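Exercise (ungraded).
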Amino acid sequence: MSRKLLLEHINIPGINTLEVYRQKGGYRAVEKALKTLTPEEIVEEVKKSGLRGRGGAGFPTGMKWSFLAKPEGVARYLVCNADESEPGTFKDRYLMTYIPHALIEGMIVSSFALGAKVSYIYVRGEMMPQIRILEKAIAEAKAAGWLGKNILGTGYDLELYVQPGGGAYICGEETALLESLEGKRGNPRIKPPFPAIAGLYGCPTVVNNVESIAAVVPIINDGGDEYAKIGIGRSTGTKLISASGNLVKPGVYEIELGLPVEEFIYSDEYCGGIANGKRLKATVAGGSSVPILPANLTLKYANGEPRLMSYESLSEGGFATGTMMGSGGFIAFDEDQCIVRNTWNFSRFYHHESCGQCSPCREGTGWMEKVLHKIEHGHGSMEDVDLLWDIQRKIEGNTICPLGDAAAWPVASAIRHFRDEFEWHIKEPVKSQSQNYGIANYATPIEKAPVTEEK
Amino acid sequence: MLKVEEQTPVVFSSELLAKFDDVKSRYPEGKHKSALLPLLHLVQAEYLWVSTPAMDKVAEYLNIQPIEVYEVATFYTMYFLKPQGKYALEVCRTGPCCLVGAEKILSHLENKLGVKEGEVTADGLFSFRGVECLAACGFGPVLQISPEYTFYENLTEASVDKLIEDLKNKS
């Protein structure tokens, strides 16, 4: 069994209440931080831990904190990004549902470290049940003196509020989130200035993912050095992985970074293999935005070495043969799944969620969706595949925020690794409506030849 | 698209206005526009949709221009700009849920309720639509029902049938 730092007590009845959470050692980190550490020392511990942002970008959290401007007489804010909307990712919802106090404890310690007197948890609007859970937990914590004025008699004041979103994926981008929190449309801002200089209401602001903030609790309890001992290389600590798709046991798993991908998929401790005795065809390892990989490249590098669940190992080989850790949304596709249909589905998602600010993304995502719809429904031509490649290249890197890249990568990687399946849809417009292309030559062991016919 | 058709004036109850005041108190002086999204949720929970006169009232309450409310209400997908069924069913239709049968659930709902996506049943009880990822991918297919946004996970055609019967009996 690997070490659990965030989900250790997940199965204990009543862990969602302050009483049980306290019995299990909860709020120790707040006592330690507020009574024995200075804000600078906390930032230093987080730096030493090597914790990297768990929302997707993987930027070192301690470094992000150290960039926060501290002008005299200007309020500073901590905003928790709980706008979890990346297809394939549901870890934050899980954490907030079952252990809301872990997030609140992390928010208190982090707010103290950053000098914030008012902090917000921006939760996506669809998660109304989680908003109710958090508000109840905040009320409990406040009644017990963990929030409000003069916490633990240290003179530190903190108010914590939950803000609902309105159902827009783009608000997971930190500057769009801040716009939304200010009561506006979620249009990402041009950076610089970065939020650390001018964020919420123009004040210095740190925006962190739910899991990053919750991870601050064990870092303060055990020390940054202890946290950094877990994991592999620059991928320190544990990570919550949301496993979905055609798996025997989909769900949220806490892994020590560095776990072999093969063990994660097939061992009974984790996903337990592919559902219904089928074979693995492909995976999206870090949420819908990251490149899709065929089964063989998911499990091993191009040179045959095993691939691990870590930031570096998942991206080994670049986009040619690798992918990304992203937010840890691990989606598994069995042999019956159609890559073209899934790529079309993801494109529709990005088209739907594009804020419309930048033309390459606004026009390009819709264009890709239409072309993919055409191919999927048996009306495609060979030129369409090249057209798709051309469109995605013109979106990537040409937009204010990363949504453009996120829309381009799934299309690019699907064509890169599964071009023969796209071409089969075009050459077999009738057959492709009732049959699937199958596993072809993507997976090991190779048992079935491609269905494509001779030209 | 926002259509200004509905003109029935809206008067917010004192209970609702008290909730408004509570939300407004969460933000620093002069930054009360931050309350806009939560306020629209409160309006929708009360009326089951957000009409233009209601938006105008919200603008008046926050002392901002009506257009500032319209642009937000049309940007975010959760706000219903026309009346829905008493139970508005929203089924996730994004990739991971489709891998485990979300499309079948959507077409089953269409048959079961006898209305198309976005329409309301004759008894006014139900409407449904497909929505993008609800962050419950490991428990798919999933649907949520506004205004409480209760989640129903691991859906099958049978469990959807049962859910609809239960809701019918409840009302």
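Further reading is listed at the end of the chapter. For now, observe: Residues 240-334 of chain A form a domain with the Ubiquitin-like (UB roll) fold (CATH 3.10.20.600). Chain A touches chain B through 56 residues (CB under 8 Å).
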